[in-house]
Amino acid sequence: MRFTRFTDLITLTFILTGSAFSYEIEDKKFYKGNQNEERLRIISTADITAFEPIIMAFQKEFQDIDIDYVVASSSEIMKAIYIENAKFDLVISSAMDLQTKLANDGLAQTYKSIEVEKLPVWAQWRGQVFGFTQEPAVMVISKQHYGDLPLPKTRDQFVALLRQYPDKFRGRIGTYDVTNSGLGYLFATQDSRNTDSFWRLTDIMGRLKVKLYCCSGDMIREVSNGQLIFAYNVLGSYAQNSLKNFPEIEIVSFDDFSTVMMRTALIPIASQRPDLAGKMIDFLLKLDSRQDLVALSGLQPVTNGNLHEDKKTRPIRLGPGLLVFLDRLRKENFIRNWESSIYQE
Amino acid sequence: MTLIIQTGSIQRRLALQLSIVAGILSFTLFMLIQVVAERAAMDTQDNILKASAASIADALYTENGIVRLELPYSALSMLGTISQDRVFYRVLFKGETLTGYDDLPLQNENSLTNKSKFSTFRYKGEEVRSIMLKRSIGVNGAFSDAVIIVAQTRLGLNLISQKITRTATAIGVVFFLFGTGLSVWAANIALTPLNRIAIAVSRRGPKDLRPVTGTSPLELKPLVDALNSFILRLKSSLLRSEDFISEAAHRVRTPLATVRTQAEVIHRSLNKSKNKTALREMIRAIDESSRSAGQLLDHAMVNFRADQFEVNTVNLPELVRDVCERLSPLAGLKDIVINIQSQESDMSFQGDTILLQNALRNILDNAIKYSPDDSEISVNCFRNEKFVISFQDSGRGFSGIDHTDRFTRGTNVSDVIGSGLGLTIANDVAIAHGGSLFINDSKKGVGSCVSLVLPI
């Protein structure tokens, strides 16, 4: 093993104040290659811990490429790319709607390769947005605190359960804060499109003082330490990955449907090394040939296609339909309705 | 090109012209498919844009005196169903942008009535097709216009149009090849009657002067009529000349017989050997003339009978013997012996007795004439796949003369007097019976063998 190569140069968690960047980053890590010439700059919503195995494996294959990995929320990524034209070579995000908007508004480059050709039609858009994982939204339950009650199989049963035992669950439900999580907003809007139960569920969760989170990881942690009994709409990949560390949690997929999100990659037009970004895209699209990485990162490769054949799953489709919930008025309406359900006296 | 047209065949010319027509039609078809299909593809995009704009218009509502919009999911997702094109929209009320892309240009708003208006322009670096739709919205009793613009890039349209071009090209090429094939075929078919007549005429035997019958197309009727009248004239002219020759021969032969008899009488009464010799020469000349006249008559007769064939069963050995017997006095004059060898069984032949008799007589007559004195002529009559009657003499043969020329009139071995018609007559008879006449020179240059071969 090369110790020097993967020496962490900086691992910082910081909120920049008064720097040249006005978008906020959450985390950042530099992976040094053999030479200091080629540098691939990635901005991503995926946590370093989740993505590091992939970066290491990539660097093993392309030893000369330095990788600058920056973690930011999807809305900050949007700000960086859409408004500030930041110099990143690759954008990896779980917010499919924002990625679609970047491509639609002409901020993404077209990339062609053999790997891209092999991708199913539904997993790419315009040859600019490429889905490389498929991750379902699930509910995570604390086994210990849930007790012996039968597990809810559908959203309706979940609503009924909450109504039946309001005191037991009050203050112990968690979900995404759609106002500051792009992925949370994406999941919520897709839920609202797919079922009427969504607003009933939001209403009852609001009444039971639901706790709001920015990220799946936080919710899983809170369930595992018993602060929460339910976490609704958690990223299945993270939950699956956390099972090793937190055996107290249980993952529930609803039978009525479960939303499936694709993590997507795109090359912004400001990219200085689209060739390196392309290599990374090809590498990501070959994920299913690296089951070791799948196991390490918990990311389900898109090329399996299995989730797309399951009738219970509702994959989010790439395309202009995703722009609808980004519409200013539509978003305003949605958030106003959501807030009025969540914040009840 | 012009050379081909001027000197080449009608068929090639016809095929070429039809192919050019097929080519022009193919190209027209290609253009038509292209134009119609592209129009249809564009209409499809326009219709989807229109539906999208209409669904946005329907989603406008007023709330507390403010116009709001709940952008329907289908309004944009439907645009993504047929292609992966970029989509832009803008909604304005009273000239103020409610939502959407602020910089999406308004297209000449004044010309917009209540209907929709399509236009094509560049936006965000790509050509887009857009629709502008106007809808009246009432707020607190006062109506104002809301304008909805939906635009989509034309990537999908270009893909469709490339596909259409490929399809249209393929159809055009197939149509052209098919058309060319049909042209060649049509040219062939059109010229079939002409070919049929040409073949029918060229297949005829040299003596066949019947008029051309059978159906011929209207266009060929003048040609066929002209040909028939020409054949008719030729036939009558030939008939006239044959008649003339036989008439002349006949008229010459009778007086010659008289002259010969008188000469014989005078010859016997003469004593002076000098005069006797002169008279013998005269008698010989008269004999030759008489023989020629006989052959001319034979020839005329053979020509006549060949046209009006009478078939009956002929016993060939008997016929041979009969002919040999008839000519034996002539052979006797030169001390020539005629040996007949013949197979007796299975020798009956269907043919015209008189013609065959004539042929055999002329061959034998020829053989006797060219044989030296005191020699032998052997006649063989046998069956060997075909009937063969051969006459072997010990004359000087035909070496140095093309055999086929022996059968044309007037060619003769230099110092032997004769009309040269004998073998011509035999050949004509052989052909009339579907057989042939062969002449084989013996290697030593002494004697030749003439065979009459007849089919079984």
Question: Notable features of this structure?
Answer:
heterodimer, A: 345 residues, D-Maltodextrin-Binding Protein, domain 2, 2 domains, 13 strands, globular, disordered N terminus, B: 456 residues, alpha+beta, Beta-Lactamase, 3 domains
Description:
Chain A is of the alpha/beta class and 345 residues long. Chain A has two domains: 27-134 and 262-315, D-Maltodextrin-Binding Protein, domain 2, CATH 3.40.190; 135-259 and 326-342, Periplasmic binding protein-like II (D-Maltodextrin-Binding Protein, domain 2), CATH 3.40.190. In chain A, 39% of the residues lie in helices and 21% in strands. Chain A has 15 helices and 13 strands. Chain A has helices at 48-61, 74-83, 96-104, 114-118, 143-146, 155-164, 166-169, 182-194, 197-207, 216-224, 236-242, 274-285, 291-297, 306-309, 328-342, and strands at 27-31, 38-44, 65-71, 90-93, 108-109, 124-125, 129-142, 173-176, 211-213, 230-235, 249-252, 258-268, 313-315. In chain A, strands 1, 2, 3, 4, 5, 6, 7, 8, 9, 10, 11, 12 and 13 form a 13-stranded mixed beta sheet that branches. In chain A, a hairpin with a 3-residue loop joins strand 6 (124-125) and strand 7 (129-142). The longest helix of chain A is centred in the C-terminal third of the chain and has 15 residues, at 328-342. Chain A starts with 26 loop residues before the first strand and ends with a helix. The model of chain A is unreliable at 1-20 (pLDDT under 50). With 456 residues, chain B is an alpha+beta fold. Chain B folds into three domains: 11-162, Beta-Lactamase (2-Layer Sandwich); 207-307; 309-456, 2-Layer Sandwich (Heat Shock Protein 90), CATH 3.30.565.10. Chain B has a five-stranded antiparallel beta sheet with strand order 4-3-7-6-5, with helices on one face. In chain B, strands 9-11-12-14-13 form a five-stranded mixed beta sheet. A two-stranded antiparallel sheet of chain B has the order 1-2. In chain B, helix 2 (10-58) runs antiparallel to helix 4 (155-202), helix 5 packs antiparallel against helix 6 and helix 7 (316-333) packs parallel to helix 8. In chain B, 26% of the residues are buried. The chains are: A alpha/beta (345), B alpha+beta (456). The A-B interface holds A 103-106, 125-127, 193, 317, 319-321, 323-324, 327-330, 333 and B 68-77, 79-80, 84-88, 98-100, 124-126, 155.
